Fold this protein.
Amino acid sequence: MFAVVRTGGKQYRVAAGDKIAVEKLAGEAGETVTLGDVLLAGEGDNLADASKVSVSAEIIAQAKSEKVVVFKKRRRHNYRRKNGHRQQMTLLRIVAVGEGAAKKAAPKKEASEPAKGAEVTKSTKAKAEAPAKTGATAKAADKVAAPKKAPAKKAAAKKTEAKK
């Protein structure tokens, strides 16, 4: 089965087992992502309902594409500028294409190794489990957290009074 997927402003025709390079996607190598914007799907000459089809892909690597040289020149004005640019990209291996493809491809890394932000999620869970602050307690907490501003200086007003 094949699908036409849109990601990063470009369209790609993909099938299971294909490797593609797309604009940078969030995630690390080994994670599984679902490409949700499926424009067309089918098998051979038969087309399927694209809204029911999902594409699951595994991130192979986060890399940079080929260097693009940007050269500007204005004749007879001694003006030359040379810049280079390497676009961030993500290399993907298409794991499954079809109805429920996201369910078939289970993430490999989540079970074996906790994510980098695991400590952050634990602290947010602790905050969510703590009783909510109400009334005066919430106001007092806001006052403590907010930085205090220095009082406004009135030296300019005193100088004008002295001149009179």
The two ends are 89 Å apart (CA to CA). Confidence is low (pLDDT under 50) at residues 109-128.
